[in-house]
Amino acid sequence: MERWSGVLRVPLHTNSGACYQVAASLCLSPTSKSLTVPSANAIFFNGDRVAGTRNPVIERLSDLQNIAQILVSKIGGSVNAWVIEASMFNGPFAVFKDFIPSVNRWGEPKSYDPTGFPASGSVVSLLSNCLKEVKSVVPQREKESSQAIISERQLNQPKTFIFGFSKGGSVVNQLVAELGFSELRSGKDPPQIEEDEEHPQVIPCTKESLLNSIAETHYVDVGLNSFGAYITDGDIIERISRRLTQGEGSRGIRFVLHGTPRQWCDSIRSWIRDEKDELFRLLQSGTERSGGKLQISERFYFANCPPDLQMHFEIIEKLDLS
């Protein structure tokens, strides 16, 4: 499948001063060369910046466009990949203030509060602005009737795969908290069409549709210099489990915890391993309560290697998404 790839600089809102860097690799129709409906949107939240390492592996895997290409190669050519870097940095530290209002100046969250659904709202707004930028350079197909769009969307509603790398895992935690408090949409409810959106099915266009579309959640060697690397609120996991049980059909969510000795064997920040183990335990309990609709697995990479910074980045290239 043909693709459009590039790195965009877009604001979260029209009057917002700060811009996000987003690498995108998007599916194109082989005939019209216009944007086409993907099988899924893979959304990857990057972490802190690392500069001056002179390590070619770290430099290559710090490049947003390279990460987008890796995601496509691992998930499949019918997926859209979006790699999001924070709009604010305090030195090397990423600060996802729009997504997690409670973060301090180092980008460390005090809590994961779903009130107002800030992370899901920010994702929808950011991807919508990215799509507008792409449409300015990619040919568009002729506008279809609303009924034709509804028919296509019912057949092709893309799933969403969420990835959080390093500090980007804090955004995943916030989305998980919001997922626990979101309303479950029945599969019988037809999607709503926004009249000014020619391709509303390419990305989720509301907070609710984003959260309802999440099929996989991947924690990729996440870690913080404070508590909160993994969400450990049992009530939220219980709500997600109950939400899946109440849903129709076989739709479920898969959680995968990917880690290296760099984070999981850090004796100074031992809470990272403790929080990972607690989240795994909570999700295992949720698997039983949801009748298997909530799935959990963990994967440990470079198990026999001493911890170093290179493995922390190299895990991106080694990700096992099977």
From TrEMBL:
It comes from the Eukaryota. Pfam families: C2orf69 (PF10561). GO terms for cellular component: mitochondrion. InterPro entries: C2orf69_mit. PANTHER family: MITOCHONDRIAL PROTEIN C2ORF69, UPF0565 PROTEIN C2ORF69. This is Uncharacterized protein. It comes from Ficus carica.
